[in-house]
Write a structure and sequence with these properties.
β22 and β23 (610-619) form a beta hairpin. 31% of the residues lie in helices and 24% in strands. It contains 20 helices and 24 strands.
């Protein structure tokens, strides 16, 4: 009996101890409640908090009202401190940060919110407007006011302004000045005068709202009659008007158009994809660098924050950030770009000219002829290089022990596995047979280079191409095709590779890099778009474009480094092309001696085959690659165009 009484006492003490332990266990803390509130405020959804005087749904409704003027922004909210001020009472200090624009200057401030422990030990929030902002009255809301800065300029070499706001006419129909029955006739007449399709414009005018100004076209003011005359011409059409405005434009309509692109009012598609960044009427990049670097060129918006009462009364400014104008720097030389476009203007097929400064890698000109029809032939075209690729073949031969004076065999015809390879129909007969390599290079003897295939493996050829930059990607700041040379090829495929045919592909830009590397005496890493510190950024969209990436051996790196002696030997042979070979006309170009290599590449299935014409040239600290899609020989089609370009530079003193 005594033993049982003792056991009961022990059990009672144990149960009492457990009960006391449970009562003293820590319940919810004010810190946890404050953190939950901060998390909710940051998402503008405080459903996970408990409130003293409202439901979470009511709290969310008030929070939405207080912050409606800040949409679509959300704040970053953190707990700075929590202080218990009494039994079951605490005050939390919250830190708000609003990222109001792209600048580093954010709007930051502290607020306080009262917490109280309820009967169930849960900490509850007393949510007031001051929890959102210390100066916010219960019936007011925060208001973010923004103003876009002037669109940034695109600059060229030496800070030359390439793209800036230039005066334009916005020409269209003001529907408030017309009766319904006048709309179609007036719109059609204006469209006919402006040389645009009348029917679609007339339909657009009829479909627009009754007070709309329906724009037909935007015209450069310097491309039409003087302002008073032009406005009078437009006003002759009932309801028509020419509104003076500005638009971010290059010096001329064609200047580097495929590269620089254009800016204009945001399309519905761009607005939909912008996640709220763009609104109707906003000016944004539509193509080219203008679109790739739109965020840079838009700059940081001017912003201010105030509180606004229900009657619209605004408080003094609580925060202001002046914003900043964007700017994009490129290496383009305005004069050289204009000259390059002018020498291509009469070429009916696709054409391109790329100029690079070997000492820096700066891309000075990226010109596309009118035959390219707006396409980026210069940077993104993929073509067989023909005999210009003998630069890489010759480098591989030099590495195998051949020299400029080594004897090579140049027969009139060569059969490889049943396929016949010939020289150009104009090839000089006196340079057939056994000749020095330098003459085979100067006269561009196909069979001599194909004959070297037994000593030059395909992998050695691909490595030599990499040494010159063909197939080596570089962050130029926009999409570009760097070329491709297969690492493996046999028989006729290997033979074709030796003379830049088969599966060998380059762009005019890639060949310009190769020429620049030879001029520099080592691999050149080209640059076109610069960051403010002079480094080249990766284009926001270039990496997403398949045509911006090289295929083949590019992943292997830059190949065996090009030595100064190898580059000097190649330059010696390129000089022979001008003194003894197919572009002797370049010998009369004023200034430093010109060295060059021509190329003709067959393509298509026509008989005889159609041909691309190529010329690469070096003069002083300048490397140039010229391409004509539908040419004859590189020397006959490309030579005169290259001469016109180099003569033009000499005449301009560049």
């Amino acid at each position: 009996m005594g033993k049982h009484r003792w056991l009961a006492s022990v059990l009672s003490v144990a149960v009492l101890g457990l009960s006391l332990s449970a009562c003293s266990a820590e319940g919810p803390t004010p810190e946890e409640a404050a953190q939950a509130l901060a998390d909710g405020l940051a998402e503008l959804d405080v459903s996970n908090s408990a409130f003293l005087d409202s439901t979470p749904e009511e709290a969310n409704s008030r929070l939405a009202d207080w912050t409606s003027g800040m949409a679509p922004l959300k704040p970053s909210v953190s707990v700075a401190s929590v202080e218990e001020t009494g039994d079951g009472e605490a005050v939390a200090t919250l830190n708000y940060v609003w990222d109001v624009n792209k600048s580093e200057n954010d709007y930051s401030y502290d607020t306080t919110v009262a917490l109280q422990r309820g009967e169930d030990e849960e900490w509850q929030v007393r949510l007031t407007s001051e929890a959102v902002h210390p100066d916010l009255a219960p019936e007011d809301s925060l208001l973010l006011e923004t103003g876009a800065p002037q669109r940034g300029d695109i600059l060229g070499a030496g800070g030359q302004v390439l793209v800036t706001d230039r005066p334009v006419w916005r020409v269209g129909i003001d529907k408030t000045r017309l009766e319904e029955e006048q709309l179609e006739a007036s719109a059609s007449a204006l469209a006919t005068f402006l040389e645009i399709d009348p029917a679609p414009f007339a339909e657009q005018v009829k479909a627009a709202g009754p007070e709309a100004f329906v724009e037909a076209i935007t015209l450069r003011q310097d491309a039409v009659s003087p302002p008073p005359v032009f406005q009078k011409e437009i006003s002759a059409f009932t309801g028509a008007a020419a509104l003076s405005s500005t638009l971010s434009l290059a010096p001329t309509r064609t200047f580097a158009r495929a590269l620089l692109g254009s800016a204009g009012e945001a399309t519905a598609e761009l607005i939909e994809k912008s996640d709220g960044r763009l609104s109707p009427g906003d000016i944004t990049g539509l193509s080219g660098l203008q679109r790739e670097y739109d965020e840079v060129l838009r700059g940081a918006d001017f912003v201010s924050v105030r509180t606004v009462a229900a009657d619209g009364t605004r408080s003094p400014v609580l925060f202001e950030e002046p914003g900043e104008r964007g700017e994009l720097r490129t290496t383009l030389d305005a004069g050289m770009q204009t000259l390059a476009e002018s020498v291509l203007e009469d070429e009916p097929s696709a054409s391109a000219l790329v100029a690079i400064q070997p000492s820096t890698g700066n891309v000075l000109a990226v010109a596309n002829g009118p035959g390219s029809q707006g396409q980026q032939t210069a940077l993104l075209g993929q073509y067989a290089p023909g005999s210009t690729f003998k630069l890489a073949t010759t480098l591989a031969m030099l590495r195998s022990g051949t020299t400029a004076q080594s004897t090579v065999s140049c027969p009139a015809e060569l059969n490889v596995d049943g396929r016949s390879f010939n020289n150009a129909s104009t090839y000089p007969a006196q340079f057939l047979g056994d000749i020095p390599l330098i003459q085979a290079f100067a006269q561009s003897c196909n069979t001599a280079f194909i004959n070297a295939r037994g000593d030059i493996s395909q992998s050695a050829l691909a490595d030599a191409a990499l040494s010159l930059g063909i197939g080596v990607e570089a962050p130029i700041g926009t999409g570009a095709y760097f070329g491709a040379v297969p690492e493996t090829a046999e028989g006729t495929a290997h033979a074709a590779s030796m003379i830049g045919q088969g599966q060998v592909l380059v762009s005019p830009f890639a060949l310009a890099v190769a020429a620049a590397s030879i001029g520099n005496g080592g691999l050149v890493s080209p640059t076109l778009v610069e960051q403010p510190d002079g480094t080249a950024p990766a284009s926001p969209s270039a990496s997403a474009s398949p045509s911006a990436s090289a295929s083949g051996p590019a992943a292997a790196g830059a190949g065996t480094p090009l030595s100064a002696d190898e580059a000097a030997a190649l330059r010696e042979m390129m000089r022979a092309v001008v003194t003894d070979g197919g572009v002797q006309l370049l010998g009369s170009v004023p200034g430093e001696p010109v060295i060059a290599k021509t190329g003709t590449a067959e393509f298509g299935s026509d008989v005889p085959p159609r041909t691309h014409a190529w010329v690469v040239a070096l003069q002083g600290d300048l490397a140039v690659a010229l391409f004509i899609e539908e040419g004859e020989l590189g020397s006959t089609s490309g030579g005169p165009v290259m001469k016109a370009f180099l003569d033009g530079l000499a005449g301009s003193g560049q």
